[in-house]
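Bench notes, afternoon.
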Amino acid sequence: MAKRLAIPVRGLGSKVDTPSVSDLAAWAKARAGQSGDLVTYHLLKTVEAQAEVHTPAAGGWFYHERARAGSLPDAPADDVLDDIQAVSLIRKNCWWSLPSAAALFLDPDEDQILFFRQFLRMMRDAGVFGHVILLEHDPASLELELVSGRRIFWHLMNPTERGLEKVLEVQRDITVAPSVLPLLGDLMGSYTVRKIIVMDGREVDLRAAMELVDLDNIMAGGYAPAGQPSYWDELVGGSFIWR
């Protein structure tokens, strides 16, 4: 008899929309006496929605301004530390999703990337488990060289062959849309791939990934759209294989 095998889900971040005045007021009232702003609201709501996700990630592209401000020389860290404390009350050792240095600064030089790296290290020292770095375009070689590490996960939002090649030079786990699985298969002749995270993968897509790696090295990945509160529950519920 076939068994339904659940495939773990990894969060890569979330999009957000503007909350209603009544929702924001109710949230602020419930947090009376605690610090927080609209960014904090979005962080907590997106983490709460990932309650059943195996590897959740707080944040997303919306953390852009906070990350940019925190990556400036001698930047105060109060807002970010408050964010981390608030998220840790919901999910400890959570990953954190934010844009790359190339998205925060126009053509960043080595010093700017090093300040960004220092910012990430400060967050990890404060309790963030690791960082999902969102890449809107192919990554810059200098940023990959200076920032990569075992607590850094590069996520290509618009993957190209060259982008995949550059990321696979520095990490062995990779996120891909189902349509990119054939290209990834071709690249595996030149690069070592340990784990494949299939974005919004259905059973047929997860089975396609099984042609490339063992079942234990397959995950489903998600980047939540704005205005879809049931997204994560539906992704978790639909991430399985019959065997």
